[in-house]
């Protein structure tokens, strides 16, 4: 379930001092990450280019850690959690699914296995993690399912057909995205959703001040993201049942309202 307390500001000096005192072993790794990120930000002023460089660095060390899994067991557990949730919400073999930020197919390989051939489309901004995704695909023996794995540099979906996908899924993407990236996605996702389809995304939730840590981890209020969706004519609702699961992020579902 979502982390508490939800009003914590991880960017504040007070929080950093308290965290350092309580977790001394993590101080040096955090300083290394800060130095690395400063160098990357100086070389890549655009957020997508910057985060692509972050993923290249993280993937070189460990593809599982690059998508937020500390080991193989947790990688499998988080993928299964995402898959089971969508299965419980009606994901059928004949559906078409677009996964934004598919990573190394932590959940994707289960979606690919479940869906009919050609029913899965995964996109990511990182060429390095997509190479790892292809390795996952081959390791799981899913070549005959003919999934699409595509490198992108934005979330306009301009190369995808209108009304194509029954489900659009983005796990731990908006938690690493500034407002303009989320706004771009919400401005265009409605076009590629099939009638009756939905877009699920997770985010790091705060009930205090919205903030970020090193431009990598972003914390949003629920009402901010709901308002962004509504600005683009979409309906958004907080998914209470996701909160019961052992994961630190929250989830919102976006749909296109039916014509009057």
From TrEMBL:
One of its GO terms (molecular function) is methyltransferase activity. One of its GO terms (biological process) is lipid metabolic process. Pfam families: Methyltransf_12. Keywords: Lipid metabolism, Methyltransferase, S-adenosyl-L-methionine, Transferase. It comes from the Bacteria. Residues 98-199 form the Methyltransferase type domain. The keyword S-adenosyl-L-methionine applies. Belongs to the CFA/CMAS family. This is Methyltransferase domain-containing protein. It comes from Nocardiopsis flavescens.
């Amino acid at each position: 379930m979502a982390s508490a307390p939800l009003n914590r500001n991880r960017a504040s000096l007070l929080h950093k001092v308290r965290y350092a005192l309580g977790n001394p072993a993590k101080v040096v790794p955090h300083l290394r990450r800060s130095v690395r990120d400063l160098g990357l930000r100086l070389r890549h002023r655009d957020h997508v280019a910057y985060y692509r460089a972050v993923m290249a660095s993280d993937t070189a060390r460990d593809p599982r850690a690059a998508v937020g899994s500390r080991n193989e067991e947790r990688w499998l557990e988080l993928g299964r959690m995402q898959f089971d949730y969508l299965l419980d919400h009606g994901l059928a073999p004949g559906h078409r699914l677009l996964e934004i930020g598919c990573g190394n197919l932590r959940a994707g390989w289960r979606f690919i296995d479940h869906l009919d051939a050609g029913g899965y489309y995964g996109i990511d901004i990182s060429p390095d993690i997509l190479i790892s995704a292809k390795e996952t695909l081959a390791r799981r023996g899913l070549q005959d399912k003919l999934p699409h794995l595509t490198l992108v540099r934005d979330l306009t979906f301009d190369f995808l057909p209108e009304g194509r996908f029954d489900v659009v899924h983005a796990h731990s993407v908006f938690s690493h995205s500034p407002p303009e990236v989320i706004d771009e996605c919400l401005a265009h996702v409605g076009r590629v959703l099939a009638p009756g389809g939905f877009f699920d995304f997770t985010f790091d939730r705060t009930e205090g001040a919205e903030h970020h840590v090193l431009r990598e981890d972003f914390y949003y209020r629920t009402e901010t993201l709901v308002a962004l969706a509504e600005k683009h004519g979409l309906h958004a609702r907080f998914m209470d049942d996701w909160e019961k699961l052992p994961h630190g992020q929250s989830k919102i579902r976006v749909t296109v309202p039916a014509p009057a």
